Amino acid sequence: MPSIHLSGRKEGLHALQKLADEACTGKCLSVIQLNRIALALDELFANIHAHGYANQGGDIECSAQWLGDTKEQCLLEIKLRDFAPVIQDVACCQGVDPTTLKKHPVAGGLGMHLIYATTETFEHMPLDDGNQWRLVFNPKKEEEGH
Questions:
Q1: How far is 113 from 59, CA to CA, in rounded Å?
Q2: Of 11, 136, 7, which Cα lies nearest the Cα of 82?
Q3: pTM for the complete prediction?
Q4: Which domains occur in the chain, in start order?
């Protein structure tokens, strides 16, 4: 599947969602599985837009491909590459600790936790001039209830 070039502005989110929809067309994915993919992509795009580009917009390159499509393995890999300031340690982007929310409620800060929870793999790679984000979804694993 070819990569696309997105604007870092919010309208770029529609193009990203379209890429994900096209990648999933013809695949036997439930509405819940499709929503999990959309939620993770929406959150990552929002973080890049808000925190990486300080809501000023910027370029994002995106690609999607199926790494396997068999009964045993069905992995969707989506990569986003931004040109925002480099993040050396993604641990600094973790936001709030969800285990303390009951005692210390706060708004926001759970986005990275949501991405980790909805993906099989979520990786960040600092580049010389930006960041690369790799999300791998495993719908077959969800289907089996693991």
A1: 24
A2: 7
A3: 0.81
A4: 4-144 (3.30.565.10)
